[in-house]
C-alpha cells in the first residue's frame, strides 16, 4: 500500500520540504500531497514591498511542482484530527477530508493581535498576501495625503514603515513601539537605523503601548491619541489555533512541541517546521519565527521523515540563529549578526552593501523553494518494512 504523506502549507518550509521528499522517496511507495490556500508561492518577507506598491513576480506552485509527482490541493485547512490521522480541507467545491500516514505541518503564522480591541476590525497587516493587498488598496485610496500609523518595533514594523515612507513620500508615517526602536541592535546599527528614520521623516514614539485601535487611528494606554488614515499592525506573530485543537501537544503559544527531529512528542507520525514549530536552537534558546528558522527546521524534518520511513541514517542538521538582515527601503539595509547568546555583535554591515545582501537573501529564498532538490542525490528510497521505521541518527556539520 502506498504511504501517504501530506504537507500542510507551501511557504518557506512546506514548499521546499515537499520537493525534497519527492526527490528522495520512491513514487511506487509514497504519495505526496501539498495543501495550500493559494495557488502561488508567497514571498512573505517581501509583502511589505507589495503593500507599499511594488510589483512582485508570481511563482505558481503548479509550475514549481511540475514533474515532481507532487499532488497540489488548493484550499484552507479547517481541521486536523491527529488521532484519526485526517485533515479537513475547504475549497471552492466544499470540504474534503484527507487521510495521511505521515503529516508535515507547516502552516506558518499570522499577525498577533495580542487581544488589543479593534485590531481585527480596523488594522491592516502584512503577514499574508491578501492582507498586504488590502493595505495596498487603502494606501492607493489615500494617494499623496494621509497619515499611516505603524505599530511595532521589530523587523516587520521597521521594514513596513521605511518601505511605505520611501515608496509613498506624500504620506506621513508614524511608528509607535512599546519598547525602544531597534533596541536589540548593536550601537552602530541602531544609529544607522535612526538616521534612516530621520531621512524618511518617520515620527517615532518609543515606550508607547497601544491600548485600542479605531477606524480613525489608535489610542495609547497613557491616553495619547494617534490619528491615522491607516493603522498597520506589526506587533509580532501568532500561529493558527488549528494545532492546539488537533490533539497535538503544543506550547502555551500554540506552537507544536517536537523533539530534535521535528517530530511531535505526542504523535510520532506528525512532523512540524517553520513558524508552527517550537524548538530549541543550538544556542539553547527557542528559534524565532523567521524565514531562516523555516529553512533549518524543514531540513531537519525532511531528513527525519526520509530516515524514519526508509531506514536511512538521519543527519542532525544545524538549528542556528545568525542574526537579521533588515531592509530600510530599496537601497539601504542593516545586517546585524548575533553571538551564541543571540546578543547583537558590536559590528554590522550597513547601507548599500547590506542592501545587496538583503536582495541576495530575497532571491535565494525563492530560488531555493523552486529548486529544493538541487545538489541532492537522485536515488529514490523505498519504504522500509520495519514497523517502527527506526533509523540511526548522526550529527553532521
From TrEMBL:
<dbReference type="InterPro" id="IPR023753">
    <property type="entry name" value="FAD/NAD-binding_dom"/>
</dbReference>
<keyword id="KW-0274">FAD</keyword>
<dbReference type="GO" id="GO:0003955">
    <property type="term" value="F:NAD(P)H dehydrogenase (quinone) activity"/>
</dbReference>
<feature type="domain" description="FAD/NAD(P)-binding">
    <location>
        <begin position="4"/>
        <end position="289"/>
    </location>
</feature>
<keyword id="KW-0560">Oxidoreductase</keyword>
<dbReference type="InterPro" id="IPR036188">
    <property type="entry name" value="FAD/NAD-bd_sf"/>
</dbReference>
<comment type="similarity">
    <text>Belongs to the NADH dehydrogenase family.</text>
</comment>
<dbReference type="GO" id="GO:0019646">
    <property type="term" value="P:aerobic electron transport chain"/>
</dbReference>
<keyword id="KW-0285">Flavoprotein</keyword>
<dbReference type="InterPro" id="IPR051169">
    <property type="entry name" value="NADH-Q_oxidoreductase"/>
</dbReference>
<dbReference type="Pfam" id="PF07992">
    <property type="entry name" value="Pyr_redox_2"/>
</dbReference>
<protein>
    <submittedName>
        <fullName>Putative oxidoreductase</fullName>
    </submittedName>
</protein>
